[in-house]
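If I may wish for something, please walk me through the protein I am sending here so I can picture the backbone:
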Amino acid sequence: MDMTYFLKVILPTIIVIVLAVVAERILSSLISRYSRTRGLPTSHAYLIKLVARWSVVVVVIIMVASIFGAGVGSLWATITGILAMVIIGFFAMWSVLSNVLATVVVLVARPFVIGDRITILPENISGKAIDINLLYGKLRTDDGQIMIVPNITFLTKFVSVASSKK
């Protein structure tokens, strides 16, 4: 290995990575201390740490790519192109993702349980909750039909629940 290459590329790369690890640890410690003194919930502190960590990673990737001779402009174009594709993908999958997220909220908040009688207003759709899965819930109507209701409906509509447990 050429000593010039080591001094111009490898050593600066190692220094950038070491400094990034130290900076991330210091940031994490400062965020933890700040969240404790301000009484922030642990989940908020974790989210702030996550954003800080990924910000450091992005800066390190740009710096290391620059050290290896990649143009920052072309790297920026690549990163923004990838982000644009991810954002477009999220919009394309929004209804599926919203139903999955609604499922998580319904399962955690438990506004109803299997066996409860549910009425969705103002449509007056009602029935007994018989199942809930990742995308939809099933209601059995009084005449025995199965109604499939997207889980997002349970969060965006008024829902009347008559508990089966009295």
